[in-house]
Write a structure and sequence with these properties.
single chain, 174 residues, alpha+beta, TATA-Binding Protein, 5 strands, 40% helix
Length: 174
């Protein structure tokens, strides 16, 4: 680059920086209207609807259902039914349970089960169950396949729904 071009570039950058700094100047605030202490400012922001308080979350239901995993029948039923499997991912907030590979009686076959919760309601369409099967030969080459609408996934769905219905009945009795 030539000296003139460098000089022009420096002037252009400095003018841009100076004008952009003025846009981010904090606005003047009257301290008689805005509290000085942080706690007071937070309280005022919450009162004006600009924040979140635990009181507002617990008292006002804004169309969402905040349930803990121990009170969700589908979740509890799924964990009780899958208690024999090694679980790799259990994410209540994400609504997912994923098992690790489970080898039963046959050492060359294994299954992996994923359950996705689409709703907290005890209904058959509230669960998406995916079963993978891995079959390995003696030379350790393995093939994995997705079992769509398999007997395992349907039996799991029915068993989980029955258990969830039982848990719902128990919860209503209490």
């Amino acid at each position: 680059m030539t000296k003139n071009l460098k000089f022009l570039l420096i002037i252009l950058l400095s003018v841009t920086m100076l004008t952009s700094c003025q846009a981010f100047k904090p606005k003047k605030v009257d301290t008689r209207e805005v509290p000085i202490k942080g706690d007071d400012r937070a309280r005022k922001a919450i009162e004006e609807g600009g924040g979140v308080s635990l009181k507002n979350v617990l008292n006002k239901r804004r169309g969402t259902n905040f349930e803990f995993s121990s009170s969700n029948s589908m979740w509890r039923a799924s964990l009780e039914i899958l208690d024999f499997l090694p679980l790799s991912t259990v994410d209540y907030s994400g609504g997912m349970i994923v098992s690790d590979w489970y080898t039963g009686e046959s050492s060359n076959e294994a299954i992996k089960i994923s359950i996705r919760f689409l709703s907290n309601e005890v209904r058959s369409d509230s669960l998406k169950i995916v079963v993978h099967k891995k079959k390995c030969s003696e030379n350790q080459s393995c093939r994995t396949q997705l079992l769509n609408n398999s007997k395992i996934s349907e039996e799991l769905r029915v068993t989980i729904l029955k258990k969830a219905a039982e848990l719902e009945k128990e919860k209503k009795k209490k």
